[in-house]
Amino acid sequence: QVWLVESGGGSVQAGGSLRLSCAASGNTYANECMGWFRQAPGKERELVGYLENGGDSTTYADSVKGRFTTSQDMSKNTLYLQMNDLKPEDTAMYYCAASLFRCSSQWAVDAGVSGKFHYWGQGTQVTVSS
Fold first, then answer.
1. HSE (CB half, 13 Å, CA atoms) of 58?
2. Angle at CA 106, nearest 5°, toward 96 and 81?
3. Cα–Cα distances in Å, from 63 out to 20, 42, 49, 55, 128?
4. Could you write out the DSSP letters of every residue in 28-82?
C-alpha cells in the first residue's frame, strides 16, 4: 500500500508560478512511475506528466511542455511539480499518482493512462486568474 499527500496548491495570477509537492509513504520502493494528473470542473482527468521513479526520464502533456517540470527528492520520498507561466486554463484539481508499472512513452498519447496508476492522492486545488 502507498499513501500520497499533495500540497502547495493555491490561487495565483496568470503568469505566476506554483510548486506542488507529493509526499509518499508506505511501500514506495514498489513504485515504478510517478505521475501528475489534473481535472477541471466538468472535464475528464488528464495527464500532466510523469517521471521514472528514481530516474531522470520525464514525459509531459503538450499543454504544459516548457512550463511545467516534475522532479523528485528520493531522500524525502517527495515528488514535485514546478509550474511556471501559469494560465487560467491550468485551473484544476491536481493529483499525484503512483504506478507499479514502468513508465512508457506510449502513455503520453493513451487516453486511458490514468488506469495505469494504482495509487492516488486526495488532490490539491490550483486556481489561476486572468
1. 18
2. 25
3. 18, 18, 10, 23, 15
4. GGG--EEEEEEE-TTS--EEEEEEETTS--EEE-TTTTTTEEEEEEGGGTEEEEE
Quote the cell numbers at residue 8.
502547495
Which residue type, as a one-letter code, is found at position 14?
A
**Rounded Cα distance, 117 and 33, in Å:** 8
- 19 residue type, one letter: R
Task: Give the pLDDT of residue 30.
Answer: 85
What pLDDT sits at residue 86? 98
Cell of 99: 504506478
Separation of alpha carbons 53 and 98, rounded Å: 9
CA distances from 129 to 11, 73, 101 (A): 8, 30, 36
Type of residue found at 12: V
pLDDT tens per residue across all 130 residues of the chain: 999 999 999 999 999 999 999 999 998 888 899 999 999 999 999 999 999 988 888 999 999 999 999 999 999 999 999 999 999 999 999 999 999 999 998 898 888 899 999 999 999 999 999 9
